[in-house]
Write a structure and sequence with these properties.
By secondary structure, the protein is mainly alpha-helical. It is built from six helices and no strands.
Length: about 140
């Protein structure tokens, strides 16, 4: 059943749209960190950029990439924020690993930190938070 859910045409379309949304949110996050680094320290800039990227990510997923049959919008938002918190922990940890262990610059560390959480976030959002009616 899991294989059927992962390989079905509907999931493939949702995943393709999710990737477009992710690329857009990534661009927002990178643009925002560049802007915020002009005035703020590294941690504050990363955090605010993450918030900006997450807001773009939620809006585009909720209304375009992963349209949901759910009617409990407040609970859905709360669940999304939980997934965003998990994503933040993964991103922030990898950001600091890349920055301090691998010696990457702040922008490259941001670029490397984003993709690893993509699969986890897609699975949680597609099959739980923004699930379709048949799931």
């Amino acid at each position: 059943m899991l294989k059927a859910n992962l390989t079905g045409r509907g999931t493939q379309v949702r995943f393709a749209r999710f990737l477009v949304v992710g690329g857009t949110a990534y661009a927002v996050q990178v643009g925002a960190i560049k802007l915020f680094l002009l005035w703020l320290g590294t941690n504050a800039a990363f955090t605010l950029a993450f918030v900006a990227g997450t807001a773009a990510h939620y809006s585009l997923n909720r209304f375009w990439a992963l349209p949901s049959a759910r009617t409990d919008s407040l609970r859905q938002l709360q669940e999304y924020l939980g997934v965003a918190a998990v994503s933040f922990l993964i991103n922030f940890s990898l950001f600091h690993l890349c920055l301090h262990v691998f010696g990457l610059g702040r922008i490259w560390a941001t670029a490397v930190a984003v993709p690893p959480s993509t699969a986890v976030v897609f699975l949680l959002l597609n099959f739980h938070v923004f699930r379709t009616a048949d799931r």
